[in-house]
Amino acid sequence: MSTSASEISARIVEAVMAQKLAPGARLGEQQLAMLFDCSRTIVREALTRLAARGIVTVSARRGWFVIEPSQDEAREAFEARRVIELGLIRSAGSTGKIDKAALRQLKAHLQREKAALKESDVGNRSFLLGDFHVCLAECLGNTLLADTLRDFTARTTLIAMLYQSSHDAVQSCEDHVQIVAALERGDHPAAEALMAAHIGTVQSALRVQAPTDPLAQLRDALAPLQQNTTTARPKRRKAAAPSADDTDSSTYLGALL
Fold first, then answer.
1. For domain 71-204, which architecture applies?
2. d(CA 200, CA 71)
3. What is the C-alpha separation between 81 and 177, in angstroms, rounded?
4. For residue 37, which of 73, 83, 81, 3 has the smallest C-alpha distance?
5. Could you tell me which of 145, 125, 126 has the C-alpha nearest to residue 135?
C-alpha cells in the first residue's frame, strides 16, 4: 500500500523537528516517490501542502527545498509562537486548573525528554523538545492551534539550525518541567511568564549576525586607487658604480636593489 500525501508531509515535518533535514535541503520528487513507494503526483501534493504551511519552497527550475528562513522570518516565527503559546496558557487559566489526564500526558512527555537527554540520539531529543509545545497545546484543549504550532515549531527548529543556536537542551527540558509544575498548581500567570522567558531564551541563543552588504567585495575591488595617477612619477636615480675601495659587497647589492 502506497503512502498518502498526509503521511509524507508528516514525515518531512518530523524529520525537520528532529534536525535530520537541514535548511535548504533539496527534496527531489523522484527520490521521495521511490522512498515512499508512491507516485510523483502524491509526492507533489505533499510538498504543495508543506509549501502552503511555510515548511518548503519551490523553484520552477531547481525543484523543492526546505526553507531557509531570513532574519525577519525568524523574528516573526518567534513572535507568532509567543502569541499562540502565551494565549493558550492565559485562556486555560480562565477555565481553572488543567485536568489530571492532561497533566499525566505532559509528565509522560517530560519523562521521554529526560530519557532522550541521556541517549546519543540527537534527533529524538530535538524532536521531543520541540514536540513538547505541540503536546502542551493539545493538552490545553486546542488541536487546531496545536497543528499550527507544530509548523511554527518546525520553522523555529530550522532557524536554530541555520543560525547555530547555542541553547542548551538540558536547560530547555528544565524550562518545560517548570512550566508544567506551574500549571499543576494552577498558577497560570507563572506558567505564562515561564513560557515567555523560555521562548525569549531560545531566541536570544541564536547567532544572528548584522546584515551584510552584498556588494561589499565588489565595491572594494572597484574603488578608485588612492594615489593621483596624473602626478608624474619621480625618475629613478642611476646607481653609482662601486669604486675599487668598496670592499663591502652588501653596500653594492643595496645600491642595485
1. Up-down Bundle (1.20)
2. 15
3. 19
4. 3
5. 145
| Domain coordinates in residue numbering, the chain | 5-66, 71-204
64 φ, ψ (degrees, to nearest 5)? -100, 140
CATH of domain 5-66: 1.10.10.10
Q: Which three cell numbers stand for residue 6?
A: 498526509
Residue 226: per-residue pLDDT: 73
The residue type of 143 is T
pTM to 2 decimals? 0.77
> Sheet holding 63-66: strands in order across?
26-27, 63-66, 56-59
Let me know if the fold of 5-66 is the same as that of 71-204: no
Quick one: pLDDT at residue 220?
A: 77
